[in-house]
Amino acid sequence: QVQLVESGGGSVQPGGSLRLSCEGSGFSFNHYAMQWYRRAPGMGRELVATTSSSSEMTQYADSVRGRFTIARDNTQRTVYLESRNLKPEDTAVYYCVRWDRNVWGQGTQVTVSS
User: Fold this and answer.
1) SS (H, E, C) 95-111
2) Torsions phi, psi for 74 (to 5 deg)
3) 85-87-92-93 Cα dihedral, nearest 10 degrees
């Protein structure tokens, strides 16, 4: 079964940090670039970060550049999103996505509030 399973969301205060994890199964994980998207309440979907299949390239949305880091461990079939200096506007459901957008995780909620 092809799937992505996220974990690591939660509630933090502004300025806090979180690490999201996403484990892939059922496909050749190391052959695909991976992405994190998010959807904030009442907003459209936003591409947050991308990593190439071997981590040689990463890209970030302007809204998170310098605060978020995407990384992957192909031996563990896992992609991570490290976030720091979180802001209330980072509140959203975060999704791990295979680059071709044919496989999505179930989403994990991140809430930033004092």
Assistant:
1) EEEECCCCCECCCEEEE
2) -70, -25
3) 10
CB distance 20 to 79 below 8 Å: no
User: Tokens for 56?
Assistant: 């040689």
Q: What pLDDT sits at residue 62?
A: 98
CA 5 remoteness from chain centre:
11
* Terminal C-alpha separation, the chain: 40
C-beta contacts of 68-72 below 8 A and 24+ residues apart? 70/34, 70/36, 72/34
pLDDT along the chain (114 residues), means of 10: 96 98 97 98 95 96 98 98 98 98 96 97
